[in-house]
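User: quick one, fold this
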Amino acid sequence: MKMNEHPLQQTQQAFCAWIRDPRSDLPAEFVTERMQVYRTLLFNNVSSFINLVYPIARTLLSETKWQSLLQDFFQNAQNQSPFYNDISLQFREYLDEQQHPVLQEYPWLAELLQFEWLELYLDTVDIPKRQFTKAPLWQFKTQVWVLVYQYPVYRWTLNQTDFEQDPSAIMVWRNQDDQVCVEPLSPLFAYLIEKLNQAPLAEGELRKLMSSTLVDLTAQEIDLQINALSNLLSRLELI
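Assistant:
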């Protein structure tokens, strides 16, 4: 017991330590059987939040491996929020911050967890509508996210069997019907859309960006790419 520590604080700390790890010492005033019931309820509650957000990751790992990750997180992570969105994010961040061996064992797992969490985030985040300027600029109606993956995790399903690398870029957003949408992008379009997402641009600025990125493009080829980008964003109702 520390010098200035109240006995109640010591009891609370011992209580919490045992809830995290039943191998720790339990004060005599607590009944082990009752504590185990309480711990099981808490663990199942936290696990349910995580399972809800990462259904594909959970399926692609063995049940033993997944349960081990949940136990590790429950025992060692320092959670700062009781909300299920935050708990699921903290689970992903915990594995990343700890450089957990599971991320080396399954090199695609970090990207899969990131994408599955992003789907939840877009389902729940309040995305303000953007105000259009009067100038003839290329500008998005809503916020989009441009992501680059080494594995095509955005296409994976519960029955995934192919885990080969396939580097690609995608754009993710929530449409006017509040549906989460995903669109694969060429490297050039990913770069231009990321720039547009930061601030509206005039078409002349887009052309300069394109010519400075791909210096071998002719003026005619730039026109074709500009038209293709315009058609894509118009079809997706983003501009």
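User: anything notable?
Assistant: The mean pLDDT is 88.
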